[in-house]
Amino acid sequence: MALEHAILVCLSEQDLSGYDLAKQFDTSIGFFWHASHPQIYRELRKLKDQGLLVSTDHSQVGKPNKTVYSLTDTGREALFAWSQRAVEPPAVKDELLVRLYALDDIDRPALMAQLHDRLEKHQERLRQYRRIKETQYASPDLSSRQQGKLIALEMGIRYEENWVSWCEEALETLTNRA
Amino acid sequence: MALEHAILVCLSEQDLSGYDLAKQFDTSIGFFWHASHPQIYRELRKLKDQGLLVSTDHSQVGKPNKTVYSLTDTGREALFAWSQRAVEPPAVKDELLVRLYALDDIDRPALMAQLHDRLEKHQERLRQYRRIKETQYASPDLSSRQQGKLIALEMGIRYEENWVSWCEEALETLTNRA
DNA sequence: CCTCTATATGTGTTGTTGCACATAGGCTGG
DNA sequence: CCAGCCTATGTGCAACAACACATATAGAGG
Predict the structure, then answer these.
(1) Are A79 and B106 a contacting pair at CB < 8 A?
(2) Is 3.40.50.300 the CATH classification of the domain at B3-83?
């Protein structure tokens, strides 16, 4: 119950090839559910076998041809049924936080460097999310689908802001204590 | 590179049996790295075979005996070496956020109910984290190990606060738009 | 005496993910 | 003409995690 549904979600908006899907899973929806392309192609075949998708071959000029997938009615029903199922909050799994549990037995300067690195990475993502918000969701009149995506993006922004400020404070605390 | 190190981290503070470790992975360190007991017992045997741990049998009265594990010097070195390795930020994987991407094709009242449910769960965790902070980290003079744990706990608190406020606002936005 | 709960430790199976590797068309620039 | 890159689609394998199931001691309470 996982990638399968994320693919149905993507295809509920528009028909896409495996390659295009992989790009979505690297950018847009990938912020909240990442997947590699081998995973995606495998899942697409499975979903097609189950009758949730159909595929059509599109010939292209200047590029290799591609196979575009669309939701069937059964697929759309499966998406709806999935949306009614309860969701558990995902478990946090973060090595950096685990390392803080052994502050006496780890390489402290290395930890500080890692915190710095994390800070920069989260700052970069934050910039990216804010750029997306400004460029794609600035309109005052969003469709309900866009509205939903914006709410998710909002979580992304807060999540990154939270990390940025936490990293800064953690670094400060650890510096004063060194 | 995963549960293995979280176990080394736990044992760097004190010797523990598999059962005690499982409890830690349900409460304390489990907030940032969860594991089930079968996983833990399997990993312990592996780490022992690798020479990172040694075990001693402790007979108990009134309870079944237990096997207590301790870090060897090699184990402590492995922990230190691991702490020097770079960490990637963990990928977010959250079905609830994925569902927001298909707001037009899902069961909207069900989504609202799920948001409510999530809100309550995060509120509960937040209460739990704050309770732990007050009861275990209130002292002005913490050891450096405790200091590290507190920094991690601080992330837990902010993380939950963030979820709580996001859920509230998401519910509000979706209500006004219905 | 029986059930329930807590302590204590596992096996077996399945599902998911990640990662490395494989292939192939066609454009662009040196 | 060749290298490098983007498009496009896969296979194979290993690691990891989730979940159900299995087993045993011993106290507490009905």
Answers:
(1) yes
(2) no
